[in-house]
Design brief:
This protein is α/β, with parallel strands linked by helices and 383 residues long. The chain is built from nine helices and 15 strands.
């Protein structure tokens, strides 16, 4: 403890006599199944270096200072990071992360936005066997195809919990975070779906970490999904707005003020992905538009949205009585019905209370599930 205090004093005291030091404001960590994300709040012109050794990563900052109130946030460990050390080498602060498996490192910086007032250095420590495991999966899938083994489940539903990790989504009047509400409802929905032996539900994220929007699409493709449902919660300036809405993909988006606001909010979160900045000339949308099944996909998405809206209307208010259209990146899964469910308004204190209540979350999950079942029943009647 004594050495720990001496280190704090040394790190802070170095900055007292200089106005030119770079401030390291805060430190955050996010653990995902295949990577650990390190986020450091810095000044715009921070001089840093990220280097990889055999079993550790060094993030160094020139002429830097650490604040006493956030110093303890440096230290972190998870299933990937064994230990974190901080050292000062002359005018350089070094953060040393010891890693317990083979890994690769990626880094990028992000500017301030409405959620974060500082510049951010983002360092992803990624399991190096991710690519090899994906190759094994593809080989296994190819083998299954050649042997003509039919999949165990006829219907595979991807349930996407919107936002996550650094991207909190909307914040309620009582400080509830949309990412937490989305995940809670998504988990309950997956559990409910998986009680049905004819269905299989898969989460895009199972914890509090960020997944780029386009990766959510590739998860659906990898799983050979037959349906994609993204769970969100609405937010507007007015605290009186209430009710559920459901959106499906539109090439041109929607002219309504709320839909435009939602498009900007949902699509801009891909800044947290670093590399996959929003949509490379809409390549995913272009793929869909060239797909001969596009029109059928639109009809299926609309029918699915209607069935779920009917059920949501039985347990609470509905904001829009018919499915809406918007140009959401996350809905660009080719050839399968894909919808985005805005479960309620987290910006409404009454609805926020409902969204954070476990029993109410289960009611919402049950309503979505009944809508899915009704949709499949209707489809099977027409076959």
């Amino acid at each position: 403890m004594r050495n720990y205090l001496i280190l704090i004093i040394a790190l802070i005291a170095t900055s007292v006599f200089s106005d030119e030091n770079t401030s390291l404001y805060d430190f955050r960590y996010w653990t995902a199944p295949d990577n650990t994300r390190i986020v450091i709040d810095t000044e715009e012109d921070a001089l840093f270096n990220v280097s990889k050794q055999n079993d550790y990563v060094i993030i160094s900052f020139d002429d830097a200072e650490v604040f006493s109130e956030t110093f303890s946030n440096i230290f972190f460990n998870d299933e990937r990071v064994k230990k974190v050390e901080i050292k000062r080498d002359k005018e350089t602060i070094k953060l040393i992360y010891y890693i317990n498996r083979d890994f690769i490192v990626k880094q990028f910086t992000l500017p301030p936005n409405t959620k974060y007032k500082h510049y951010r250095l983002v360092v992803d420590i990624i399991d190096s066997d991710v690519n090899s495991s994906l190759k094994k999966t593809k080989i296994a899938e190819t083998t299954k195809t050649t042997k003509k083994v039919l999949p165990k489940y006829k219907k595979i539903i991807i349930v996407d919990a919107g936002h996550g990790g650094e991207d909190s989504g909307a914040i309620g009047k009582n400080k509830s975070k949309e990412k937490d509400v989305n995940l809670a409802i998504a988990r309950k929905l997956v559990t409910t779906i998986n009680k049905n032996s004819d269905l299989k539900a898969v989460l895009t994220r199972s914890g509090d970490y960020y997944i780029p929007l386009t990766k959510r699409i590739t998860i659906a493709q990898k799983e050979n999904a037959t349906m994609f449902i993204s769970i969100h919660a609405d937010s507007v300036e007015s605290i009186s707005a209430k009710g559920a809405s459901i959106y499906l993909l539109s090439e041109k988006g929607n002219n309504s003020k709320l839909a435009k606001q939602l498009e900007q909010s949902q699509n801009s979160v891909d800044q947290f992905g670093g590399v996959e900045n929003v949509i490379d000339k809409d390549k995913f949308l272009k793929n869909i538009l060239s797909d001969f099944s596009r029109k059928d996909r639109e009809i299926q998405s609309f029918e699915l949205a209607k069935k779920i809206l009917e059920q949501l209307g039985k347990i609470g208010p509905v904001h829009k009585k018919i499915p809406q259209k918007a140009n959401f990146v996350v809905l660009k899964s080719p050839a399968i019905p894909s919808i985005l469910v805005e479960t309620a308004f987290i910006s409404n204190p009454t609805q926020e209370k409902r969204l954070t209540n476990t029993k109410q979350q289960q009611k919402i999950a049950n309503a979505i599930y009944r809508g899915i079942i009704n949709y499949y029943s209707e489809i099977e009647k027409d076959l």
